[in-house]
Amino acid sequence: MAMTGILRPGHVQLRVMELGPALHHYKEMVGLIETARDAEGRVYLKAWDEQDLFSIVLREADRPGMDFYGFKVLDAKTLEHYAKRLTDYGVAIERIPAGELKGTGERVRFETPSGHLIELYAQKQHFGNGLPDVNPDVWPDGLKGMHPSRFDHVLLNGDSIPETAKLFQEALDFDLSERIVGPDGSMVGAFLACSTKAHDVAFIHEESKGRLHHVSFHLESWDEIRHAADIMSKNYIPVEYGPGRHGLTRGLTIYFFDPSGNRNETFHGGYIRYPDHPVITWTHEETPKGIFYYGHKMVESFVTANT
Amino acid sequence: MAMTGILRPGHVQLRVMELGPALHHYKEMVGLIETARDAEGRVYLKAWDEQDLFSIVLREADRPGMDFYGFKVLDAKTLEHYAKRLTDYGVAIERIPAGELKGTGERVRFETPSGHLIELYAQKQHFGNGLPDVNPDVWPDGLKGMHPSRFDHVLLNGDSIPETAKLFQEALDFDLSERIVGPDGSMVGAFLACSTKAHDVAFIHEESKGRLHHVSFHLESWDEIRHAADIMSKNYIPVEYGPGRHGLTRGLTIYFFDPSGNRNETFHGGYIRYPDHPVITWTHEETPKGIFYYGHKMVESFVTANT
Amino acid sequence: MAMTGILRPGHVQLRVMELGPALHHYKEMVGLIETARDAEGRVYLKAWDEQDLFSIVLREADRPGMDFYGFKVLDAKTLEHYAKRLTDYGVAIERIPAGELKGTGERVRFETPSGHLIELYAQKQHFGNGLPDVNPDVWPDGLKGMHPSRFDHVLLNGDSIPETAKLFQEALDFDLSERIVGPDGSMVGAFLACSTKAHDVAFIHEESKGRLHHVSFHLESWDEIRHAADIMSKNYIPVEYGPGRHGLTRGLTIYFFDPSGNRNETFHGGYIRYPDHPVITWTHEETPKGIFYYGHKMVESFVTANT
Amino acid sequence: MAMTGILRPGHVQLRVMELGPALHHYKEMVGLIETARDAEGRVYLKAWDEQDLFSIVLREADRPGMDFYGFKVLDAKTLEHYAKRLTDYGVAIERIPAGELKGTGERVRFETPSGHLIELYAQKQHFGNGLPDVNPDVWPDGLKGMHPSRFDHVLLNGDSIPETAKLFQEALDFDLSERIVGPDGSMVGAFLACSTKAHDVAFIHEESKGRLHHVSFHLESWDEIRHAADIMSKNYIPVEYGPGRHGLTRGLTIYFFDPSGNRNETFHGGYIRYPDHPVITWTHEETPKGIFYYGHKMVESFVTANT
Question: Which residues form the VOC domain (chains A, B, C, D) (predicted)?
Fold first, then answer.
């Protein structure tokens, strides 16, 4: 198929301060489904329309943030292809043995110049989306909370954005869909896609490494964004921005926080993008509009709060 | 990028009985944008968010229907790759010289077992989507009618569905996302994707060859479906079904007709699909629900009217 | 307040063939809340955002249909005012003692020329909408099914439509918002309002008396209409029309049936109407468009099926 | 009809600094329709679905703000009834002769304790909503901008809120639907309705008199709110809050400013309210949630900016 290579965001492992409130947040409020726990006490969750065993892993720790972000690739051969491409590119890779994450095959891990651990893997246990493969309905019963259909992407903060984008483009065949440039014309934000989505991962510059800006969940409509906002208000979940819109990707959005301070996003929309489409550039002056299309004002915490 | 090979539905050439009413329909009602005409009198149209010069070509003729359906591939090398794959598969190909369609490079054409002319091409003149590549807004001013963002797919009627699906899968790397089976278990409907869309082309069986069932345009929301339905009612455009939903693809839909009797669709939604997702099957008994998820009744004209 | 006299549709008593399936339908599918049962076995239900004890009463019987339709009036003095107005108009009234319906004060009942039993009452036990009166959220937790916010109106079939409309206008101070006229110019449909809604009750002609066409429930958005349609499809609830729209009232709609064959409607929208607004007329030729604004085709069962 | 007495917000006269930019804003951006100008240079505008000649009057002046706010009453007799009620209540009334505003009958004007000029009138020239009274479509062609269906209400700032609310309730038969109380339990906000809307006018305390907080326009859906937000962003219209929601009234909202600094609102939703419904109270602690249901943070300018 035309869809080969690196397929999609497959999982993210998040650090949370206390598992109890975190599970209440991600299961009852966001509406993810718990599918497994492991001997280390990690909890595995998925969005309802995902087929694989999990996409979110919660690990209790003494500080919030992201341990690693994994992409599923088409097959074992593809995994080896990209392992070699990374090595040839001069990036050190580490092989995490199958089973270290529940139901997951071997993972090839590397660190980006921005200081983030990224993984590729080819195999994960099938779980299903709650619908049969024969004559399925359009959604299963029993959905809760904001009930996103999938984990969509992460946005990461760190330095060395141009080098990081180059790595994704040259070693991993990602497309640069949009970029933010600083006052001096340098790239301070990179939105990168491995599919026809407007982005599958994004990086925005800051003077440190390995920070998580947000984890994004896909909703089905602007009305589900409103419904999610209602849930946040009813339950006193801290909201940073939204319901709103990004100029970048055109996505409709809410930024909010989990109990550990990890930023979440509910996301809908965003254009379909093909590799022959032009790269979009946001200038320094219009970056506030690019990020906060409704309001045009840079929300202070957007650039100061990450985990 | 992961998105390689055959990228997307690129164009369809439709036969219309009279150009005047057809242009009123596709420009003022549907809201496509005219971008060119050629010496043969053909009119070239595009949806607003498409980047290439055209996606719909109207040709005046004495009967309605589809002349051919074209897919854009990544590049010239990919075009030759698939030309060879088709030839190796035993399919005769015809090379249509560059320029036969305005601003379009060489096309490699073949006929499916179902009797449809399908084309691949690698190059088409860039036109843009009415927005700048620097600091773009989320939509351009001046949109008209139902203002779809893109031409999305066609559904074709003919015989030899299993052979046609096999050709798309084996020679062109399409994925089978969903299939309809007849009372005897044979495949009578095939939904095929070259991307993460639920389908980029579909075939449903009938005892003739080369028929067009519908041409589909993508809208941005269920509310735009309502708006499109309002326009159809105000302007006495014949509606066959909808606003409604398909079980197949989960897409929200309206079926309606152009003045020549070609069926159109406005389409929103549909799941995102990856190649490791299961193939969905619709049984004979539940096919009416699969196609007309709201109502469950097979609309008579759905199986009798095509062009 | 400007809002005086007859306030709103307060209740309808429906006959159902079997209470079990009816309760499954109205509670689990439609999403009404059961608030009481009485010694006669009647079950009392309400929509979540209604304040009074009930709006729908189900009575098991050997045929479906409507026993009576009641309007709440402002207060006891208003009830006596309209009792006298009806008597002065020449209409016989019956007084149903307080308590015959749970938690409900005395009802003044009369029969319309169309053969329907209509009631007025001033008092009903308060139940609340699940939200506090201090710092309420925008909706309560625990809503089920299509979760309408209120019982909205009924449409009734019978003869003597002009006489019935005249009674509502002259004795009860309703406004005629819209009317349907037959080929000979006579009124065959009357939409009547006691508020700023486009209608609080409607009558459409047929050659019998006292028939129920449908009971309507108000949803909050076009997206809730879609959600309701999903539920109907998932649960094989028979749908007659929709998601669609009426030209009359502009309301967005689905017509569907309860297990006893009583037609239900989910309804959203409809204009706000003031008494100084013009009466809208639908001619015989355009009545199909007026009722089925999407499609323009008179659905056969619309004029043949009632209870 | 039940709908008698004071019917609805009929007009507001706004002061704008320069007519040119104001007309661009209200006509091209908001999408009001200009229907008349007068010898004084005032411009008369209406929302598309209003029947009367105008609802917004723009007057060029050296400071922004509101000159007066007028309610339409049912008829001349009602006008005299309320003139007497006001006089009996001890409020001085002024009679503005017919014709002072274009096409408008005599107006009875008084000043509220909060320092605002309020008017009642019974007659205004009919203009229509662009749709015929026979077989109308659901909206007319040619709508522009955010195309609200009506002018909905104003929110006013001033002192003496309890006295002002009392006047509306006791002399004008308005209902108090919601109130905000201060730390000491005193009423600092009053939401008042003359219909089944959640409010037709509102007052919030500040230590001055006669200030305008915002003029509100009704949109048809949450999706139209999004569309309006897109227009504001594209055109750099200053947005204060939203798309968001109020806990008070449950309305979906955007606050934005006209070029003179007058605050506008686009508004959708809000519950239907009857006079037998409980009054809702917002405590001091939860007032930020009541006003800014999405976010819970009091926007600084909300309490400092008015005109």
Answer: 8-123, 150-269
